[in-house]
## 1
Amino acid sequence: MKDTPTMTYCALPLASASLAAPGPAPGPAPGLPSAVGRLDRARARLATRLVAAAGPDGLLRAPCDSRILESALALRLLTVTGVDPDAQERLMRRLKTAVDEGAPDPVQEAAARAALGEYVDGPAALTRLLGGFDHFTAGRKRLMFQTVLAELGAHPFPALASPGRVFEARGQQRWLATEMAALKVLYAFGTGSPRLVTEDDWRTLAPCALPGPPPYGNHLARTLALLALRHRPRYAAAVGARARELRELLREDGGLPFITGMDVFATATGGLALAGAGAPTHTLRALAAALIERQNQDGGWGFDRAVAQSDVDDTSYCVEFLRATAPERFGAEVAAAGRYLLARRGEDGGFPTFEPGTASEVAITAAAVNALAPDPAHRTVVEAAVRFMVARQEAAGPFERSWSLNESNALFRTVLAYDSFHTVAPGHPTGTEVLRARARAVARLVDTQNPDGGWGHVPSDPSDPISTAYALIAVARTPTVPSAVGATERAVRHLLDRQRPDGGFVSRPDQAGPRPLAYHVPLLTDVCVLLGLNHARAAASRDPRRTPTPTGKEAV
């Protein structure tokens, strides 16, 4: 990036309330942490770490840790192509260590053991993993994992009634179309029915044979594609070349990650965290300028550099950060992003993650609301989106787990969206229903807080910093509710007690993809915790009278 200001950072103002509701700051509210100085020092150390993560191009560097599934498939690719014994050995050590220490889920354990040549009951692994996975993608995920484990030798390929159609992914995101085409090819050749494969399938896979980073930043999709392309002689040389390049993509532990990283997502969310912590204007504008350079032609953003597949989640966070940083500078880019978001809106008023016409999701809809609400031109769209969220939560409970494995992720995002709605549409006829839904979300968090003050992915899970930070955002924004105030104080103590000597935090993986498989981007832990602590700090200066509740009494 040209002419990017150098991002230096020395100290933070101790009293930043930039994420608080607008209005006077009368001083610390009763019941909130009295050790404001300790809280501000923790935020300053976290913010300094985030600024230090910026790369030469201005984006925060947020690489992804290696994962067992991709490592098993990479070993399979190197084995069938017969290249790079040293890389094969590194991958084998990574998989053996994972099996010895305990894989994070049954499917990845099955994949590791199959790649190592050990017997495993693959179908049972799928049952254990997906038995409680209540999601619109569950059927597709079962087919995907069955086929992957069959390719790795864990069990035979599944018997399919209509194999020519079950692998279709029309209207889906590009890397999913690539994955499904690859799985179709692997199934066809694995079952002795290569005539199932069409020229369109080969064309879908062809970009993965080209040199350079994996298309869409997705190592899983590319590795599957290369395994499929090996079945067509014309791609043999390219597949071998890409297999030899794998050694450069392995992490220090010898494994291959799911994706290249989440630099765009981390820069947008990290930028919001830094803005809330009082970072200098030149630092924020440098991050914003780096994001502008990564905006896709359709007006949206992907999760990492060079990811041309935009999505509603990343685009919404980018819009929030650009608007918070310099709306007068980035009006055209924000407007283009708004058009991208509006084009994805579903008939039900909600928003999907990727392509229009696919299923709307609560957390993604909340993201779109937070991005669109400040523009009065979008009021009708925002109202419909909020009605979708309320109706979905009334029908199924506000506890969606989607791209995050946390209940608290969707809960805090809906709380923010409801607050955005009340800011732009005070006195709206649906206001009482919205307040009731907000109260339910906060009550769920208050009721499920662990005795140590933290939260886990779901109730009864051990506490971890990311889950706790998500929940803290919601409860800290509810200062008129005594139970939420107490939950805020306990959560802040929990987090501050777990800050490491280097200022950072370590957490269990939170992101999921393909859902429900976890993957980990360590920098996001610091980002999420700083966001949570910012909201707690803002609560200490917020006028409680400005937080809406249905009756003026305790809403939880």
## 2
Amino acid sequence: MSELFDAVDALVASRSPLPPPAERKRLRAAHGLTIDEVATALKVRRATVSGWESGKTEPRPPERDAYARLLKQLAELYPAPADATVPPRADATVPVQDAAPAATSTGTPAPAEAPAPSAGPAPQAAAMTVSENTRTSPAPAAAAAPAPLPGARKAPPAAPAATGGPRFDNGPLAVIDVDTDGKTLAYCTGGLVLDVPAKSLPALVDWTLEEAKLGQPKLSGPGKPADPLLVLTEPALKRYGLPAALGEEERTAGRLPEGHKVVKQLTRADWRLTKRGFGPWARIYRPAQGSERACVQLCIPAWDALDTRHWGDAGQLPPAELARVLGVYASRVMTPRGSTAVTGLELMTALHPPTRASGPDETGRRRSQHNPGSLGKDPVDCAPCEAPDGHPVLADLPRFHVRGPGEKLFEEAYDWARPLTDAECLRRNLVGLDVNMAFAAGANGLTVGLGAPTHVRNPAFDPKLPGSWLVDLSHVDLSRVKTGKEWVELDAALLPSPFTPKGDRPEGPAWYATPTVAYAQELGYEVRPLEAHVRYENGRYLDGWYNRLRDAYLATMADLGVDADLPPENFLAAMDGCRARDPELAIVVSAVKATVKGGLGKLRERPRGEGWRPGEPWRALSRPTWRPDIRAAVISRTRINFHRKIVKHAAFTGQYPVAILSDCVVYAADGESPLDVLPYREGRPLPGGFRLGVNPGLVKWEGTQSVLWGEGVREQFEAPELNLARYIKDGTVTAQDNGE
């Protein structure tokens, strides 16, 4: 009989009444308890208690009985005020039609150098729905972030919920996991959790497309909605018959063998895999029927799908937190399509689809036609000077021929350094400044070629015409240049040349992208190209791409407490430790920045194994987005933007950089702060020079080391021109600098 009584007691405990979430929090705080103390006592995670107090989750037995007991005792000690309004119980049923719509938050206006972000979606609690086969409940909330600085925004507790209509009610993606009870769950954005009935991978794909309501609306009129993304945790891999890790041969191939049992299951169910097979980012599809797509993408963190260089420890996060990180990224950038580099390239295409529907003809039928402003659906050949070594257009060159500047376009980021002067050695510190989203800023407003190049002999230079120009810029003398309408005298020996990545003065004719040649004119010097490959079909192809990534970056930084309109001192204070306020959102910031650099790098993707030999085409050449000329133009403009600010700074302050690496510059200074380097008068920066701020193109503090440190590491490695910008962040030098 005692066993029956125990069973009855357990049944009653499983439905122990709980006060509403706000009251739970009040009672805990009234007794001076922290969330961590409650979590420790109940042997649960901190985020679990936070979820109970926010109403995003409800406790389950056996923790529910203990939690109810705690709250009951606290309620006896601290009764609610008589005039308090008690909201409805958090575990009451919520009708589907009464679910609140998605909320929005408005971005902060940005300075003129980078336009303000558009309004973006704000996080919200998930609506609760009930069906016969699918249970939904809120996921555990992420740990609360520390209080932000004055004027800072509070970090969101979850990824934004979808706003794409009923078809995408549950957001763009789900993290599939198996709990301790053996139940398969789908953790969605907005804190939603779905029961997954599928027992096999083909059934999981069917469920995703037919019931899960996952996906993302298209980003442009002629585009297509994003396919659902499923992220499989290690327990989910085991549930669906997949290995927890790829073997050595599988890692080398980047996929499972075609004979694997799960691949055979998909084949028997008439599902197909793309050419890259079943790897860390697998796409499972059936051929489209008309406009209807049937495609699901998988992301497998245990197989290194989330590169730690860009996603940090995202792959190790619990399912709810991982859904939040990927959900914020998806809502602000796009649903990941692979690595951050792949996603950066896919974002370009999503914003400028290659085709669109024509107007109806006499029969009312519409046809596919070229979408103006896009790169089209067919690849175009690059000019010989734009081709990387081994490209088919260079097949006639001798096998070991090394192309010089007169044969090869070499637009790359800065890697330049010089010895300190005697005066600089007497200063105490070296201060590093880093340009925010430098390459994104270089893409903003840039006119690039859309079609194939046209070869022209002895052309007149046109700064508005994108292309590659063979021109001699060795006569440009940095000791006397124009800034605006005035000529200024500078110490050219202390400045890098703007025309070469290493900062060396060119020695004769060389190939340059349009922004580089235009800057020579801007400095007050005549240019006479010998020949050019120009693109008469052109446009500002990257503007929408820049705007999307800028908005994502600024919105996420604002969530971390760094707004776009902070004064210099407040900006430096807000940046100090901002990543620690919400480490998950800090991951999103890193991923957004990697999307910029990786997407631009993909424009000139090199062969990746595949048995390739020099002179043969490789897979990337078949893409319309294989455009080394666009990459070169962005890098050219980024480097020129950097040099322009350096010249302004030198002309106004007499200070010259001692090292530059990509988007970081180092100056000698007596103080430790960027404010000891940057000239501010009454809170206003030097016009056209460096300016502190979070917007793309503005600068932040990279790090400060002593001059003695700099001279010491150069002596240690016997390298007087060691690039100190590479190590200024934390001062750690692990090996001799080889420029790589």
## 3
Amino acid sequence: MTILPIEAVAGTRLALVLGNSHYQAVPALDNPANDAADLATALRGMGFDVIEQRDGTREAIANAVRDFSRRLSGADVALFFYAGHGLQMNGENYLVPVDAKIETPADVRFNTVNLTDIQQEMEGTGRANIIILDACRNNPFLDKLARGSRAAPTRGLGRVDAAGQGSLIVYSTQPNNVALDGAGRNSPFTAALLKHIATPGIEVRQMLSRVRGDVLAATDRKQTPWDSSSLVGDVYLAAAPSAVVSGSPPATSAQPAAPLATPSAEAQRVASPTPQSAAGSSDSECERAAAPAPPFASPEQLKIENTHDFAAAVPICEAAVRANPDQPRLEFLLGLAYGGTKNYMAAQRYLTKAADAGYAPAQGKLGVYFATGRGVVKDMPRAFELFSKAAAAGEPGAISNLGAMYSNGNFVRKDEARALELYQKAIEAGNPFALAQTGFMYFYGKGTPRDYGMAAQYFQQAADLNDGYSLKYLAVMQERGLLGPPDAAKAAELRRRAVQVDPGSQDPNVPKDLNAGAPRRAAGVHHVRRIYYYRFVGCRWAWC
């Protein structure tokens, strides 16, 4: 059973939007009041009931939060947005009202609004709770507080993870960093948010990936929006995608890309959305013949990659490109079709055209070609450049492949912790291949202390998507007693399953001396990244 998406059009949707620009004791900020006004307008247009407060004193903000809290019980989606000054002290984050006078740490506690209080008010089951903070601008109180106490604040807001199920916390920049104001009406982050938030049919985490790409481009990569999610299911802020589009084929998967990651020669899937085309049109026929699976694709959609007839797809997509010249999506699909027939020279020609037009899936796929020497001279620096561009635009496959470059030390200095971080970001973006990669990292203790239990959770998610390589790793773990007493019968069942659903999958090369001795475990609580679309409830065959 899959967790059903929270439909954007269903139920009550409530938002509290705060923006503080005109501070009384410190210089004013240009953008936050504009950011709040413009976002409030956008949210109202999307069906939100909005509580709006600009240039709020502490009392005014407290009253707005109280009103917001009172009405939360009837909401299915709750959103909180704050733009303005924010500061961090002793691990707590504080939002600064316009009348705040801060000379000592005590002033922080009594003259600001603690973000934790708002977060706790929003906690609750049965709804999606979203907190968006464009509040990491330079702290004007830093020098005074540094002189006044050992409990001085640090740079930017501190990271707070989403608590419980159904929460998403979004920061305009990475923890402990400072966001930029920008030169226009809105900050770079809010400008990107306004550009994408009302896009219909896009899940909120995919929307944020697009925002992240725009902010990186606008700030010359100085500012990276960050998020922490415990959302369960898909959440659409604008209109949810139509269940059926007349004449539009189901999304399909592309031919597997070349192996990049350490554990296997498993193919990298390229994930991208499938546009809706008119029935019978040449572009819709090309979509049907060559389109890759979208992010969060079902196992059935992923299986279709093995049924594509790419030789037949080539003339179909050639006709579509002739009928619709200079369409990067169609050039990308024609490149995939040529690649499926192993005509890599032609494939890279069309992929290059689409990549040069800024189409992120084509950039990611072309990066695979340069990383493996398909149709081009092998060029790891060029592959890294292409993966980086596509990853900045939120392309899930490129994020995963960038992780593989850091894991293997290809062109860049080997950095397994960075690789693990990228794999987990790819999972959040809907890339199934990164599930197996992350399981591999925990299995061998790469970028994190070894933890067989965590490895098994990631391998199991990939196995639920019929990934044979992960099924075989689970079999090895059962055979060697890495998850409890050895269980040969369960291992045999896992191997039979792998042969059935993924006959071409590679056998893991696990050292013979690896046994069930006590694996190292990371301190603290693990947060397993999941493609929640596939979160199954009840007993699964691999464990029952």
